[in-house]
Each structure stands twice: as structure tokens, then as C-alpha cells.
């Protein structure tokens, strides 16, 4: 998995990383870590629709710490070509409720119209 992570993050060979993550899911489609990494790779590729699908699958599989996943899915929704501000802010609010720290993200409460 470390080699694959290098492909995706350091080498920026996102297309190959997606291919390999997808291949790995053929053997076990309930791998939270693979969906998380593939969702992050889709996000890095600015393929927000597929990032949302993978982050949603992670939430469905119900890992112990999903605040980051809710945040990433929410952020992806706000970056869609046809922005889903309501859905994105709802996910970000859920992330905050679950303990995600957004104190470094200036303007988020203004954008979503809620207090941190």
C-alpha cells in the first residue's frame, strides 16, 4: 500500500493510483482505507463527483472516526461544477459536531452561515 500511496501523493500519477485502488476493491469492496485513499485521489484530481461517492461509501461503512470524511465530502460538494452549498455545509457542520477542527479555515462559518 505504501508504494501505491507514493504513486498517488508524491508521484501525482493519479490515474494509475485510481486504477490500482479500484482493482484492490474487486477483492474486498468493504475496505474503508482504500475508499478513503481513492476518494482523496479523486479530490486531488478535482473529480469531485467521484470523491463524493467514495467518501459517502466510507460513511456508509461506518468507521470509528469519520469527521474528516464528512469534512472532505462537504468540501467536495462545495467545489462541484454545480455547487451543492447546502449539502456541503451540512456535511461540514456534521464534521464539526463529530470533532473536526476547522479553526484554521477562515471564512468557513461565514460561507456556511454558522458558528464554529
TrEMBL record:
Record keyword Disulfide bond present: no
Repeat (TPR) residue spans along the chain: 32-65
Cross-referenced PROSITE patterns: TPR
InterPro entries: TPR-like_helical_dom_sf (IPR011990), TPR_rpt (IPR019734), Ycf3 (IPR050498)
Keywords of this entry: Repeat, TPR repeat
Spans through the membrane: none
Keyword Protease attributed: no
Pfam families with a match to the protein in the record: TPR_8
Protein name per UniProt: Tetratricopeptide repeat protein
